[in-house]
Fold Acyl-CoA dehydrogenase family protein.
Amino acid sequence: MKLGFSAADEAFRAECAAWLHEQMAGPFADIRGIPNLCDAIPRRKEWEQQLAAHRWSCIGWPEEWGGRDATLAQQVIFAEEYARAGAPNRINHIGVELAGPTILAFGSAEQKARYLPGIAAGTAIWCQGYSEPGAGSDLANVKTRARLEGEPGAEEWVVNGQKVWTSLAHYSDMIFVVARSEEGSRGPKGLSFLLMDMDQPGIEVRPIGQMNGEAEFNETFLTDARCPADAMLGAQGEGWQVAMALLAFERGVSTLGQQMQFRNELDAVIAAARANGLAADPVVRQRIARAETGLRLMRYGALRMLSGTDLAAIDGAALTYKIQWATWRRNLGELAMDVLGQAGEIAPGEEYRWPLLPNMYLFSRSDTIYGGTNQIQRNLIAERGLGLPREPRGTP
């Protein structure tokens, strides 16, 4: 396991850190450190295009598709420096980190040429059509259906169903949808992975108000929504394999950038405790020390996971990482509110908009739910990671 970086890597760190600092102190200073995911969307779209113009948008991609062929170490370094600079959360995270790598892995040459340039340029924002009202953590229970219609050579997939928790769907240009394309199929069999345009009459997006005042999540209704027959990624009926591969990409180098965001949040908690005198309270100091220890352990664990070459081992380690960081951040949110006291319960403005720590506390309540609840993660750790027998299902 490498816990440090080479001289060349540190030179790369200096390069990207300098560029990010220049942008966040200059032309994009107005969106530095904004805590709400749905704020300043037009400016954040401009930021995506600025990243792309300087080839910082998708540095791990091949150069021919707008990347830099960056090494794993360089991708980790950029993710860390991006968070350290206070740059805003990427509104095209799903396109750059999920859709793009999946298209690179499973797409045809024509599909790559059709979809990747827009993602790399920051002009095509993507969202994810996985969860449904009856298929959240149990993704294999998808009910959205797709049927093939039309004359040969002009066939289209016609999709009907409902997706939920589609983050930033109301600002997105494209969506990838897991749908049941084989009549009578059940579970992971008979699913297909479709790439669909959001700007069409058959797609309706309804934002869901959240308790932190945002509406990042959405319900997405598909009523005879359409995409070309060749907009299917992978073979018909093999969408489960594509969907699971995409989730593996989600557990990649962005985990280290995520931890730098956690670092910023913990530093804000420490600063608040120093400002109001609670840093002298032995119980608060102990909780801060526990949070610091947990964050460092997560960093070492993620570095060990990402430095491995056994993909199965990486996938197994990732099962534990989700429950680890989600629980840690939920606890950090509770610590933040205890440090802030009553001052943290009052929004400073007229609108229901919160500064960093109260917003983090409210949002962190969902960390142990989305992407697989803690309960589901424990099942996955037991069954896939440890090879234990599956729990009984249904009535014997």
